[in-house]
């Protein structure tokens, strides 16, 4: 027979022993475990954060000044299985007070050892560095116990011979001196800075005024450029409009000229038709009769000419014939006379025509 055991997240349950005589331990964090009656050993170990206040009284520092230091540390048992086993080996069965006592003595031992290596000034002036050094040195030792140091801070440092008080006064005087020097330097620097600021302000004002003037001039130039561009665009638009208007007028004029050419061609064709009609009319009424009359006159003239030629030819033929006749007559008379003279025959008158 057995029993079920449960634990919260702030505890770890350690179960050892079993039904077969095994001594193996089982660790349960924030859960439950089964234990055999009269066989299993059930123990608990706290996982809560434990606050410790280590204190080392009258510990001599590196300069031989005895001081007392108190600190505050936050530690807890680690829950990783192997480290939890280390903690159980060290603290299982012990109360929280006993656990805190062991860890406290370890921290105080390391704190005392480190105090002997530092000066009061190092401890006093940089407590955080001192606390960090203690934490780093003590962490491996407490870690082997399964304990983790969550934080460690120095709470107070004091001594019984007023060393720290004297150191504080010296530091206070030094601080006061440095403060006075700082005030003087600050006033000097303030005056220099004020002058520099005034100069910078004047420079800035001059630069601002210059930029403003440049901006104004640039604005005016930009406006002039815009106006010029606008005027140019207007002129270009006007010119384009006029050119387009001229093109339209030219187009209209060309169309009118084409119309006039067409009309003129029609008029010319009409006039040509009229001239052709007139010529035909003239041919019919004047030229043809004139040509007929001219032909008539030409025929008459040619007839008269032919008549004259024929008349002349006839006259010439007549004269030739008369001449020939007369010649033949004379020749015949001559021959007749000759024959008459020879024969004195009958005289024959011979004539060819």
TrEMBL record:
<dbReference type="GO" id="GO:0045661">
    <property type="term" value="P:regulation of myoblast differentiation"/>
</dbReference>
<keyword id="KW-0472">Membrane</keyword>
<dbReference type="GO" id="GO:0016600">
    <property type="term" value="C:flotillin complex"/>
</dbReference>
<dbReference type="GO" id="GO:0005768">
    <property type="term" value="C:endosome"/>
</dbReference>
<dbReference type="InterPro" id="IPR001107">
    <property type="entry name" value="Band_7"/>
</dbReference>
<dbReference type="InterPro" id="IPR036013">
    <property type="entry name" value="Band_7/SPFH_dom_sf"/>
</dbReference>
<comment type="subunit">
    <text>Heterooligomeric complex.</text>
</comment>
<comment type="similarity">
    <text>Belongs to the band 7/mec-2 family. Flotillin subfamily.</text>
</comment>
<dbReference type="Pfam" id="PF01145">
    <property type="entry name" value="Band_7"/>
</dbReference>
<keyword id="KW-0175">Coiled coil</keyword>
<dbReference type="GO" id="GO:0072659">
    <property type="term" value="P:protein localization to plasma membrane"/>
</dbReference>
<keyword id="KW-0967">Endosome</keyword>
<dbReference type="GO" id="GO:0002020">
    <property type="term" value="F:protease binding"/>
</dbReference>
<protein>
    <recommendedName>
        <fullName>Flotillin</fullName>
    </recommendedName>
</protein>
<dbReference type="InterPro" id="IPR027705">
    <property type="entry name" value="Flotillin_fam"/>
</dbReference>
<feature type="coiled-coil region">
    <location>
        <begin position="216"/>
        <end position="288"/>
    </location>
</feature>
<feature type="domain" description="Band 7">
    <location>
        <begin position="87"/>
        <end position="269"/>
    </location>
</feature>
């Amino acid at each position: 027979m057995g029993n079920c055991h449960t634990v919260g997240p702030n505890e770890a349950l350690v179960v050892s022993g079993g039904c077969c005589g095994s001594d193996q331990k089982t660790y349960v964090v924030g859960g439950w475990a089964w234990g055999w009656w009269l066989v299993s050993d059930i123990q608990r170990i706290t996982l809560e954060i434990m606050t410790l206040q280590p204190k080392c009284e009258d510990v001599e520092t590196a300069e031989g000044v005895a001081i007392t230091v108190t600190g505050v540390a936050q530690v807890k048992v680690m829950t990783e299985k192997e480290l939890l086993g280390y903690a159980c080996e060290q603290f299982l069965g012990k109360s929280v007070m006993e656990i805190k006592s062991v860890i406290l003595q370890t921290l105080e031992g390391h704190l005392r050892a480190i105090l002997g290596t530092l000066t009061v000034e190092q401890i006093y002036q940089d407590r955080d560095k001192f606390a960090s050094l203690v934490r780093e040195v003590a962490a491996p030792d407490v870690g082997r116990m399964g304990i983790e140091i969550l934080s460690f801070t120095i709470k107070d440092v004091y001594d019984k011979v007023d060393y720290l008080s004297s150191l504080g006064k010296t530091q206070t005087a030094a601080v006061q001196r440095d403060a006075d020097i700082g005030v003087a330097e600050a006033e000097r620097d303030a005056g220099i800075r004020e002058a520099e600021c005034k100069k910078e302000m004047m420079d800035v004002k001059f630069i601002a005024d210059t930029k403003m003037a440049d901006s104004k001039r640039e604005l005016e130039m930009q406006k002039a450029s815009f106006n010029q561009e606008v005027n140019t665009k207007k002129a270009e638009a006007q010119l384009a409009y006029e050119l387009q208007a001229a093109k339209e007028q030219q187009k209209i004029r060309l169309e009118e000229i084409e119309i006039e050419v067409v009309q003129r061609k029609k008029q010319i064709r009409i006039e040509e038709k009229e001239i052709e009609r007139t010529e035909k009319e003239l041919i019919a009424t004047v030229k043809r009769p004139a040509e007929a009359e001219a032909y008539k006159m030409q025929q008459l003239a040619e007839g008269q000419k032919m008549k004259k030629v024929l008349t002349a030819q006839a006259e010439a033929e007549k004269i030739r014939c008369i001449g020939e006749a007369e010649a033949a007559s004379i020749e015949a008379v001559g021959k007749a006379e000759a024959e008459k003279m020879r024969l004195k025959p009958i005289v024959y008158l011979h004539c060819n025509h």
